[in-house]
Amino acid sequence: MNIETLGVLLIIAAIAALIARALVGYNLQGCLLAYVLAALGAVGGWVVQARYFVLDRFLVLPIPNDSAPVAVIGASLGALLISILGTLLLRPTAQPVRRRYRR
Predict the structure, then answer these.
(1) What does the domain layout of the chain look like in residue ranges?
(2) Using CA atoms, how far apart are residues 68 and 43, in angstroms rounded to an integer?
(3) Contacts of 102 (CB under 8 A, 6+ apart)
(4) How far apart are alpha carbons 96 and 47 in whole angstroms?
(5) Half-sphere exposure (CA, 13 Å, Cβ side) for 79?
(6) C-alpha angle 95-100-103 in degrees, rounded to nearest 5
(7) pLDDT per position in the chain (103 positions), as tens?
(8) How would DSSP label each residue in 80-97?
(9) DSSP state, residue 68
(10) What is the pLDDT at residue 90?
């Protein structure tokens, strides 16, 4: 993997993180978490599709100096799934409302 491949995967991860935040909900801390999880999912989805599936040549971005082209489908699905699952599981829960009692 060279720097161009990593750049393409990070762009795919950014788009998937934006989609995940739009679906799940928005807060500032969750955006960074969604992007990190999407980047990990994009790399993982790219590796899984390149190694285990025959759809290698279906919608790929060939990088001139790299031996392995970027499989867009696997990277996109991996980034989106990991980002949505992570943000759903790790989002903050609502705090109970404290009531004041008058005396």
Answers:
(1) 3-90
(2) 13
(3) none
(4) 43
(5) 28
(6) 165
(7) 778 778 888 888 888 888 877 877 766 666 777 788 888 888 888 888 777 776 556 666 666 776 667 777 788 888 888 888 887 777 666 666 777 776 6
(8) HHHHHHHHHHHSPPPPPP
(9) S
(10) 72
Can you spell out the DSSP letters for 27-49?
A: -HHHHHHHHHHHHHHHHHHHHHH
Report d(CA 21, CA 19) in Å as an integer.
5
71 DSSP β-pair partners: 60
Alpha-carbon distance 24 to 77, whole Å? Answer: 16
Q: By the 8 A CB rule, do 2 and 63 touch?
A: yes
How many residues can be counted in the chain?
Answer: 103
